[in-house]
Amino acid sequence: MDTKYWNNFYQSNPDLSKPSPFAEYIVGYLLNRKIKINLFDAGCGNGRDTNFIAHNKFSALGLDQSNVAITENKKQVKQCMNNFLNYIKTDFTTFDYDGYSFKNGHDIYGLYSRFTWHAINYKEEELLLKNLKLSKKLHYLFIEARTIQDSIYGSGQKIGMHEFITTHYRRFIEPSSLIKKIKKCGFEITEFDEGVGFSKTDLDDPYLLRIIAKK
Is the separation of the CB atoms in 184 and 193 below 8 Å? Predict the structure, then answer.
């Protein structure tokens, strides 16, 4: 993961207070089904989604390797009066999920990954999948990532299969391959969708996959 790039990015973009559409979708999904869960935000960045999750009274832990992001995010913890929010500087692919104890919450854990699955390389993905397979507490996966159908696929320097570097590294995801890998970790795909319109901005309308999986 391009820690130097993301440190510079979050130094220049310290506050994106509005949550992503994916965070709103997942929180709505959980609330509508009255699922009691603690969430790890894998690669939380500036914490806009982590903060949103916590303010909806789900215990949330943001994980990121950017010391700039984590330092800034920790300032939000004091503002989150429900005490459901925290941040740790760490590598989410090797983090000990079962070993973490939430101050408030429940025994069911979920991994939330928005735009971070395509930020890790194949070796890092293998470490993460092994971690997920061995976990006894992670029962849900919530993933949104760019796919090989995305319009910027092929941009920049190609360094491997579906891997490119522009200003930073991206590994575009082949949906059926990822689904097989997730299933091998003991998860059942309960929801899958792909296409554009999920995270449209004035500058971009990426072709994304959305996965909800349950163990």
Answer: no
pLDDT in tens, 117-149: 999 999 999 999 999 999 999 999 999 999 999
Judged on CB neighbours under 10 Å (0-12, 13-18, 19+), 136 is exposed
Q: Which of 6, 82, 91, 90 lies closest to 46, judged by CA? A: 6
pTM: 0.91
Query: Would residue 164 count as lying in a domain?
Result: no
User: Would you state the structure tokens that stand for residue 51, as one six-digit string?
Assistant: 């903060």
Beta bridge partners of 191: 212
Q: Is residue 63 situated within a structural domain?
A: yes
Residues in Cβ contact with 97 at an 8 Å cutoff, skipping those fewer than 6 apart: 40, 109, 111, 131, 135, 137, 138
Burial (Cβ within 10 Å: 0-12, 13-18, ≥19) of residue 200? exposed
Q: 40: domain CATH number?
A: 3.40.50.150
Q: What is the layout of strands, in order, in the sheet containing 60-64?
A: 85-89, 60-64, 38-42, 109-114, 138-146, 208-214, 188-195
Q: What is the pLDDT of residues 20-60, one digit of tens each?
A: 999 999 999 999 999 999 999 999 988 999 999 998 989 99
Residue 90, classed as helix, strand or coil, is coil
